[in-house]
Structures are given as C-alpha cells and as structure tokens.
Amino acid sequence: MIELSNVTRIYRRATGEVRALDGVDLRVEAGEFVAIKGPSGSGKSTLLLTIGGMVRPSEGRVVVADTDLYALPPGERARFRAQNIGFVFQLFHLVPYLNVLENVLVPSLAAGDSGERREQALALLERFGLADRLDHRPAELSIGERQRVAMARALLNRPRLLLADEPTGNLDPDNATEIMNYLAEFHREGGTVLVVSHDELAARYAQRTLHLRDGRIAPIPQPRPAG
What is the CATH number of the domain that holds 182? Predict the structure, then answer.
C-alpha cells in the first residue's frame, strides 16, 4: 500500500538547511495498522504529508496503492488523493463558516461527486452520534465532536488508506480512546491505517510501531525476555 524509497525532504532557511526527512525507507502493506512515534520536530507531520501527496520530497520516491504519487501532474495527484486517502489531523482543519454536514462533504468536491455523497455523509454523522449537529458550525461543537466530524470527513470517499496526524493530541482520554476505536474499526473493515503520534495510546492499537527521530525511521526495539 505504501512504499517509500530514500525519501528526503529539505527545508532551506536563512540559517541553513533543515533535513525534515533524511533518507526514509518505509513499507506498509495493505491492511496494516502502523504507528510511528517520535518527539515534536522529528519529521512526523512532514512524513505523513509526503505520503499523502501534499509535500513533494526533495529526493526519493513515494508509491501509494501502486501509484508513483509525484510522477502524477498536480491535478491527477489531487484526484488520486481524494479517491484513495483520508486524513485526520490534530487541529481538525474544519472550515469555520461551514456547518457540520458541509464540512463532511468537502472531500467530495475534489472527487467530483458531491451530489452523490450526501446520503453517505448523513450515515457517517449518524454513526458518529452527530445527527443532531448537522447545522452547527465548528465553534459550536466540543473538541471531541470536532474530531468526530473530521473522522466522518476522512471516511466520506471510502478511502483505502487513513493517515492520522496526532489524532488524539487535543483530546481527553475518553475522546482519545473513542477516536482510536474508530480507526481500529476502519482497520478491521480492511482499511490501511498509518498514525503518527507521540501518544502511547496509538502504539497500543497498532500492529507495528516504528520510531522517527531527526528525520530517520527505525523499529522500536522490543524488550528482551526475562532470564
């Protein structure tokens, strides 16, 4: 599902170069649930946005669902992303002047089928306990409700891959567990999940946990058995 080969991303600043990603090799099979842990500034968000087709690497190759993302023209890449990848962000990125239903329908605009997705959006909002919030705007929702709206939006186009960037970072323990349960449910239904987080909760749900530090990725060592 995901294959990164020697992916490097360099940001040039007045003070010099910053290597946000430094020769990352990564393979995630279809149907896996993988967590990538790392401290703030380790390159987690850059990695996720690169996999999602939103940040072009300075070097290397990014293949998602057998598609070389950055070989596609920008318009085709945007359509591929809308049809295959769902995003869940720590800060939700809801449009403040749209109501809940309109926010969930935003991805259908890029996929080109907004007229066909209303029933799907309504079903998702019912599933997430938000059927009575359709006309509310983000400022009128609790933090947990905003994240559930973001989850519904990510699932609208029935993606094959969910990318989650610190999805529990702003949530209390109960809401954090609820969001991780939704991600686990998507995984049980056959989807592929990649979560980047510093939260131990994500690692407890994942089948495999990796560590990212200074733009480089490695498995987290397993403790040696006693004796």
Answer: 3.40.50.300
Length of the chain in residues, anyone? 227
Burial of 204 (0-12, 13-18, 19+ CB in 10 A): exposed
Domain membership flag for residue 227? no
pLDDT digits (tens, 9 = 90+) for 90-134: 888 899 999 999 999 988 776 555 567 888 899 999 989 999 999
36 assigned to some structural domain: yes
Maximum separation of any 2 CA atoms in the chain, in Å? 63
Q: Phi-psi bin for 221: left (phi > 0), alpha (psi -120 to 50), beta?
A: beta
pTM tops 0.85, yes or no: yes
For residue 68, give its domain range.
2-219
Q: Which residue has the tokens 């239903």?
A: 101
